[in-house]
Amino acid sequence: MSTAPTIAPPGPTGHPIGFWFFFWGEFAERCSYYGMRAILALYMTERLGVNKADASTFMSLFIAACYFFPLIGGYIADNFLGKYWTIVGFSIPYVVAQFLVGIEDKYVVFGSLVLLAMGSGVIKPNISTLMGMTYDQQRPGQDQLRTSAFSWFYMAINFGAALSQFGMPWLRTNYGYQSAFLFPAALMAIALVIFALGKRYYARESIELKVIGTPGEVIPSGTTLTGIPVNYKVVTLEEKAADRALKLQVLTRIGAVFLMVMAFWAIFDQSASTWIFFADTYMDTTIFGVPTSADAIQAFNPVFIVLLVPVSVWLFKTLEKKGFKVKATQKMTLGFALTGLSMVIMSVAGFLAGQKQDVVKLTTPQGALILAKSEVLLAEVKKPESGSSTVAFGDARIVASDWEWDGEKKKLSFANGKLVLKGGSEIPFAKGHLPTTNLPTEAALASGGVLEPSLKSAEDLAKVKPEDTKATLEMVEWVKPAERVTVWWQVLAFLIITVAEILISVTGLELAFVAAPQSMKSFVTACWLAVVFLANLLINAPITRLYPHMEPGVYFAALAGAMAVVTVVFLPVGARFNRGMAQAAIDAKEKEAREGNTETV
């Protein structure tokens, strides 16, 4: 009697359940991170009294730290806690820091930023790796399904970034910084809960540690404090030395390429600092008639990413089918050139914009008045212990019974009294309110004291603290609205640098993976993250300090010139890399042929 052959039932073909925990958890976490980062630079300058040079440096150091901690996070997960418990453990201080960053105290904020960088950085490499492991275990051999999962994962990151970068500035404008920071804190708490609940749907983890010993030696397995199995692999000193030599060889091959990529990240990451400061001071940020804050413009980057990545994939596949295969180094060369072009556009906008001037802004719940610096000079004052007092500012005076002076921020707040300008013009206040009937016209104020009187509107009140009990006088940098340039200059720059990001970031990581053997993929990923870390630490931290002291057109033109040099230098670097890869392929084939001949004999 014959027996029919046994056919194994087909395995599952859809995404595993764990994928949706990864997807929504990452969406909420990226919403939280990018939302907080979107308003951080202006928060430092407007609420903490940090000058623009220091704020730019702090932003660069914060971003650098976010790309340094992945190296530590990967080490902790691979050697001690495993990926799941590393993510959960470091997410808790991440949530706490998101709540604390809204407290307007420098020490609290900067301490919170350290925790935020640590939490974000540690999570970054582990969650994507754990998702990849889940597909390897639960959907083995389904490479296309895993590729699809990472595409959706990438979309979750960019959708989350776009939503929060548009939404957080709106919350800040309408409800203030402290209320706005509660939004990313709540999102991060949600992200932690979502991820933690999916534990039983994730890959089973184990840790492999290499120890030096003799061939054939066996070390019993153990477990970590979190219950993850630990397997020990014995390697000889010679094998350890060979591993180090291989890493050095890979670094030699890709090191020059990574060095060039540092220049791109240095410019790209300034979108969180100098780009915002430029838009805030020099640009009319109205989009299709809707007032938009300067820090919301960076949301165009993830929007363009979502729209352009599929287009770029289709374009290069079409060219390859027609016999025009574009090399990775050629894509990167074009990306460097486009990065320089984006800086040319920003430079042109800088030269077209009017000159900034130091003015004093008077803000109340009803509106904002811009006063000439000669009319109101903010100088350090001392408040009497009791009673009314007159505070002199050059030719202007404040007569008030209740006022506060913040010397660090150069800001005077008062509830009741009157502002007496040069020539005797008076602006009365009651409980911090300036009645709209008393808002003066330009002609009514003496000696041109008011440059731009304005009635209440969403745009004018964008920076008014949502407390209706005080008026404030503060020194600000200001460009007349008629001399500001349209925000579409920066939107165009974002479009071009996003194309450059696709050509450099996505292509560069793929190129590095091709250059490394299978056992070195994680090492190459760590090196790639280190490039962003070094770009912000060694380049951005010092050069962004120059922005407040230079004309913006000159500053961005200098960056454009630097990228032109990088583009030219990369031509021989890319050619050398291609020759090295070609030679490595020849060597691999010769080695394979020799091993084949040996087996035949």
Topology:
Blueprint: H1 17-46, H2 52-81, H3 83-100, H4 106-138, H5 143-175, H6 177-197, E1 207-212, E2 222-223, E3 229-235, H7 237-268, H8 274-282, E4 283-284, E5 286-287, E6 290-291, H9 300-321, H10 328-352, E7 357-364, E8 367-372, E9 389-393, E10 396-400, E11 403-406, E12 411-414, E13 417-420, E14 426-429, E15 450-453, E16 471-478, E17 485-486, H11 488-515, H12 521-543, H13 552-600
Parallel strand pairs: 1-3, 4-17
Antiparallel strand pairs: 2-3, 5-6, 7-8, 7-16, 8-15, 9-10, 10-13, 11-12, 12-16, 13-14
Helix pairs in contact: 1-2, 1-4, 1-5, 1-6, 2-3, 2-4, 2-12, 3-4, 3-6, 5-6, 5-9, 7-11, 7-12, 7-13, 9-11, 10-11, 10-13
The average pLDDT is 80
Quickly count the helices: 13
Span between termini? 44 Å
Sequence stretches where pLDDT stays below 50 over 5 or more residues: 1-9, 439-468
CATH class of the largest domain: Mainly Alpha
Q: Under the CATH scheme, which architecture of the largest domain would be assigned?
A: Up-down Bundle
Percentage beta strand: 5-15%
Order of helices and strands: HHHHHHEEEHHEEEHHEEEEEEEEEEEHHH
Query: What sort of overall outline do the alpha carbons produce when their principal axes are compared?
Result: globular
Across the major sheet, the strand order is 11-12-16-7-8-15
Largest sheet: 6 strands, antiparallel
Number of domains: 4
CATH topology-level name of the largest domain: Growth Hormone, Chain: A
Strand tally is 17
What is the SS-derived class?
alpha+beta
